[in-house]
TrEMBL record:
Protein name: PAT complex subunit CCDC47
Annotated transmembrane regions: 81-99
Compartments it resides in: Rough endoplasmic reticulum membrane
GO molecular function, one term: calcium ion binding
Keyword Repressor: no
Extent of Basic and acidic residues compositional bias: 349-408
Length: 429
């Protein structure tokens, strides 16, 4: 009955007919049908003939129809934005990334320009050219694109800036590199909270050939020095493992690697020691070498023969950016150390010891080159033999294949019977 009422309500809702009216109409139709049936049976004189109609009506019991009340319930729909929650999150993430990129890039550019403005006076007073752009045609475009003023600050990337300078006595060229945090990268910025990093400034100066004595040394934190000795060829081949530098008057947190103790004693004067102790917490590394050849050759290098690189006279230092007082200019300290290294001279015994080390390293490199050449020649011979053998395997003429096998057999027998002896010539004095 409930289902019937629901259907009736749905069907007659548009016509304005209620369920009660429909049920009453159906009840009236049923009464009319009953009355018509009774009339027909009465006319024929059936078995109900003689019964009073009032008694018949009184005997009929029709229960009253119950009214059905349906409660109106509103359909609840979810908000439209919940269906696009994924797209909304992606859009918000892209917006945050873009905002962080613009603000981070602007922040790094401001830090780099502030550093240059602070040290521009010292650089201009010591160098003839400071950050000059060599390409005249691209000068205007570079100034507009970088927006760093007069093209003096070169933007390598959004977090790396460099400044070049040249034209000074005792210094062939000067390079200051600012390696800042990747503030423009939101992911790197979040990771920096887990693994903290610092803004770094690296100053590299190169001296002319013959302007430096036999000096190889490095100062810094123990972890940094250990990594440098594993990577740099001069520190790896010439220097001893890191040792505490406290006996030289330096801070207890600093360590030193050098070719000989006399080298460190000759380089570290009172002025340099005072500056390093004051900013020991900011010092990352200080590297002075007259045999600088870069990083160690890779063991998996595809080159057949290792190229012997020409050594350079080089001075390199890395400090954390910021925290240095205005009176203690890092550029001024670097130039002071450069002039001091230029005039430093070792004792005769220290020079002889250093020369022996250099001769030993040169011989080791020559032996390595000779061995690599032999291995490369042997590999070429084996490849040639393999190609000849493959060619004869594909040869259709059996006579040619048989002759080739005979020649190979004779050659192998000659090598067994007459092995090659290495001849050594000796000069008689």
């Amino acid at each position: 009955m409930y289902i019937l009422a629901c259907r009736l309500k749905t069907r007659h809702h548009t016509l304005g007919i209620t369920v009660e009216e429909v049920i009453e109409e159906e009840g009236e139709e049923e009464d009319d049908e009953d009355m018509s049936v009774e009339d027909e049976e009465g006319g024929e004189g059936g078995e109900f003939e003689g019964i009073d109609d009032d008694e018949f009506e009184a005997g009929k019991s029709t229960p009253p129809l119950s009214k059905i009340h349906l409660s109106e319930s509103a359909v609840r729909l979810q908000p439209v934005w919940l269906a696009y929650i994924g797209e909304i999150l992606i859009g918000v993430s892209l917006l945050l990334y873009f905002i962080n990129y613009m603000s981070g890039r602007s922040k790094n550019a401001s830090l780099a320009q502030a550093w240059l403005d602070r040290h521009a006076g010292v650089l201009r007073s010591n160098f003839a050219l400071v950050g000059e752009v060599q390409e005249e045609e691209g000068e205007g475009e570079e100034e507009e694109e970088e927006g760093e003023g007069d093209g003096k600050l070169i933007k390598e990337s959004d977090d790396v800036y460099t400044v070049w300078a040249s034209g000074r006595i005792n210094c062939d060229n000067f390079l200051a590199q600012l390696k800042l945090l990747q503030r423009q990268d939101l992911l790197s910025l979040l990771l920096s909270f887990i693994w903290p990093k610092e803004d770094l400034v690296t100053i590299v100066m190169q001296l002319g050939e013959g302007d430096m004595d036999s000096i190889i040394m490095a100062i810094g934190q123990k972890k940094t020095l250990t990594k440098m000795q594993q990577e740099y060829e001069d520190l790896n081949r010439y220097c001893t493992p890191p040792r505490p530098a406290k006996r030289l008057g330096l801070d207890s947190d600093l360590q030193i690697v050098c070719e000989a103790p006399e080298v460190a004693q000759a380089v570290l004067n009172q002025q340099i020691v005072t500056f390093l102790n004051r900013y020991a917490h900011l010092l990352q590394s200080l590297h002075v070498s007259n045999e600088y050849t870069g990083f160690l050759p890779d063991a998996d290098d595809s080159a057949e023969v290792t190229v012997i690189r020409k050594p350079q006279n080089r001075l390199e230092m890395t400090f954390k950016l910021g925290g240095i007082d205005d009176g203690d200019d890092i550029v001024r300290f670097a130039l002071t150390l450069l002039d001091h290294v230029k005039t430093t001279r070792l004792t005769k015994e220290a020079k002889e010891k250093a020369q022996k080390n250099r001769n030993r390293v040169a011989q080791d490199k020559e032996k390595l080159q000779h061995q690599q050449r032999q291995e490369a020649a042997q590999a070429r011979r084996e490849d040639k033999k393999r190609m000849e053998k493959e060619k004869m395997m594909l040869e259709e003429d059996p006579e040619k294949a048989r002759k080739w096998e005979q020649r190979e057999h004779k050659r192998q027998m000659r090598k067994l019977l007459n092995p090659r002896m290495k001849s050594v010539k000796m000069k008689m004095k």
